[in-house]
Amino acid sequence: MARPTIGVLALQGDVREHANALAESGVTARPVRRPEELDQVDGLVIPGGESTTMSKLADVFGLADPIRKRIADGMPVYGSCAGMIMLATEVLDGRPDQRGFDGIEMTVRRNAFGRQVDSFEAPVEITGVPGPAFHAVFIRAPWVERVGDGVEVLGRVTDGPADGRVVAVRQGNLLATAFHPELTGDLRVHRYFVDVVRAAA
User: Fold this and answer.
1) 182 is annotated as an active-site residue
2) Where are the domains of the chain?
3) Binding site: residue ranges?
């Protein structure tokens, strides 16, 4: 596939930044707000934002079940920060009525690193992403507390009080990071995901 079309779930969060990073990575990027728009993409990015709000809006816009079905059918999806939460099969410290897309067999803890004032940046080595450690930006970020047998841990925090915490994972065509690569200008994570989309096609 020479130029796949990748959607960015455009309900809430940093949609524009992901779309720009995808366009710079050589794909056609489109916002996805309706089921018919979801039908037109080869892969999907779930951006950072507020996961409880995203969960509600996915139901309001009729996207929750169609996204779950596309995931079950093998569509590649990448979630960053809130997107990681939305892809998890289990969420700790979320709202009781919060529901995600049940994609990656993992348990994540919402706002695990603390509040907005506790946001930080740290180097993260990511398996499969060549080059130096990724300069990762964490904003009210989750971390992964448990992964299932089919989930590959791609990256951990390697410094400070959160040393060793899992912050990047992959299961099949599904990729998730606790940090925001779209805010850094470093396109390596987006290019990695583009390669996943091309391979799936």
Assistant:
1) yes
2) 5-200
3) 49-51, 110, 139-140
Three-state SS sequence of the chain: CCCCEEEEECCCCCHHHHHHHHHHCCCEEEEECCHHHHCCCCEEEECCCCHHHHHHHHHHCCCHHHHHHHHHCCCCEEEECHHHHHHEEEEECCCCCCCCCCCEEEEEECCCCCCHHHCEEEEECCCCCCCCCEEEEECCCCEEEEECCCCEEEEECCCCCCCCCEEEEEECCEEEECCCHHHCCCCHHHHHHHHHHHHHC
Binding-site residues for L-glutamine, in ranges, read 49-51, 110, 139-140
Per-residue pLDDT tens over the stretch 139-163: 889 999 999 999 999 999 887 777 8
Active-site residue among 18, 24, 37, 81? 81
What tens digit of pLDDT does each residue of 168-183 get? 999 999 999 999 999 9
**Active-site residue, from 90, 105, 145, 182:** 182
* CATH, domain range 5-200: 3.40.50.880
Which member of 17, 18, 180, 190 is catalytic? 180
> Is residue 190 annotated as part of the catalytic site, yes or no?
no
152 given a catalytic annotation: no
Q: For 44-56, how does the pLDDT look when each residue is reduced to its tens digit (9 = 90+)?
A: 999 998 898 999 9
